[in-house]
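Record minuted for everyone:
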Amino acid sequence: MSEFSAPDGTLASITGPGDLKRLTPEQLTLLAAEIRDFLVAKVSRTGGHLGPNLGVVETTLAIHRVFDSPRDRVLFDTGHQAYVHKIVTGRQDGFDLLRQRGGLSGYPSRAESEHDLVENSHASTALSYADGLSKAFALRGEDRHTVAVVGDGALTGGMCWEALNNIASAKNRLVIVVNDNGRSYAPTIGGLADHLSTLRLNPGYEKVLDLVKDALGSTPVVGKPVYEVLHAVKRGIKDAVSPQPMFEDLGIKYLGPVDGHDVQAMESALRRAKGFNAPVIVHAVTRKGYGYRPAEQDEADCLHSPGAFDAETGKLSAPAKLKWTSVFADELVAIADERPDVVGITAAMAEPTGIAALAKKYPERAYDVGIAEQHAVTSAAGLAMGGLHPVVAVYATFLNRAFDQVLLDVAMHELPVTFVLDRAGITGPDGPSHYGIWDMSIFGVVPGLRIAAPRDEATLREELREAVAVDDGPTLVRFPTGAVPAALPAVRRVGQVDVLREDERKDVLLVAVGSFAGLGLEVADRLAEQGFGVTVADPRWVRPVPIELTGMAGRHRLVVTLEDGMRAGGVGDAVASALRDAGIEVPLRDFGVPAGFHPHGSRPEILTALGLTAQDVARDVTEWVSKLADQPELEHKA
């Protein structure tokens, strides 16, 4: 696999979509190979979504040869399959800084290009955007098309089907390309996946049949039954397969399945769809990781989103470290060993959230519901009503989509459901749509919901066990992405609050939440150098605010909260409210993430930009507590 810093060959001549239209079939084949070389070389250095983009090269080229972006609007669902789109719309030079601060976003970005319109990378939304766009173009009398590229996994989300119902009734110029690789993050499962697999088996597409046959071998959930259908078709049982009804019953024309790695076949289908001037679905069968052997052979996720790796072998460059997700996965299995009522649920992310470990040992007790967070939560409510204790594991940003279900379907019924939020806080390279900074603010208003924020491996294991032990309401455990920090043992525990540092003087109570415990200790060291006495407390359970924490606050001059979440409605606000309710009039200052959609970059870079470093926090706290110096020190109470 060649590595280079600038494109050459045919790729070097592509500065915009219009350049693609003059290429011969032979040049397109060469260009596709060059793009794959380019992707592997660049992503191997920066990390990013490799597998999805290797699988959509020819499909993207065909779309841009048939349609005229940006006049015709091209949307991607999810946006992690838009790297090839970026390459052919003039952003090749930016890939050296892909997903790095000041560089290209890993998702479509309106700030980067007029060819990008939607940058929210949550799945199952593009068809709703496309429905509105196509209606707007029709109402304004504009001769424009809307193209939505939808991964097959996204079709497991309910919004897609709500949108399809409206798209069919509107009859506007809208082409939906279903990029069907049998996988979203992992192999797509469920009844819809079975049906899509059946759709792949149109007897008129022998080349596609061979492609599907290869893919089915690594899809154990649906592979065997679909492979049997394949043989039924080849024996001439023509009515065993019916490609059109699922979509055409909605009133949407269907074309396919088409080999998504054949530019000419895709172009032909897209041109027919474009000329129909009404909604059309083009069903493209592709292979995730296509053309790069290490990705094709990666059974877990086809190198879906690796960190930096060796381009020749596909092996990750960074040494393995203990990850938060791994600790959760290990402890969940240990709990499941002891409690047969504990089950796991995830939304198309069994490997990334750790539920795969439970599924491996107890397959009948782990449920992957597809990209359907709302359903996951209410299904969990049903499981709890049935006498089980569900553990719903999702990324923190994705649970935002199911607030109503958490509030009214789980909490109002006081059901014992545990939510485990991976990637809580500032996550870095994936950017603002993936930051898990809203959960403590949003879910902090849910009555009866207890929220825990572990600081290290030991407290994650402990707090997860405490969470699943609760049987009279929901619990939530949140932790960040990446490696688990070194152990931060408590000097003592007061009720449920861990005291991590305690000086004789009681100038400042630093309430350090979860992953910010280490930051709190660094700040305390700096304050101690200025002669101030500091207590660092980890509340462990941040909602409701522990009564012991308010008691501690009353014995200090100043309370400072540190949290890896939104300041508005966050832990700082909750502590301030608890102090008011208790009649404790100690001043409070809060540090957290300010409101806004903050750009992508590494976690340290973003925290530095937000002033959430030990130096910045200590400077501000020193200034605040110095203003209280004329007040007598409060008497210490044991």
Summary: Residues 214 and 311 are 24 Å apart (CA to CA). The two ends are 66 Å apart (CA to CA).
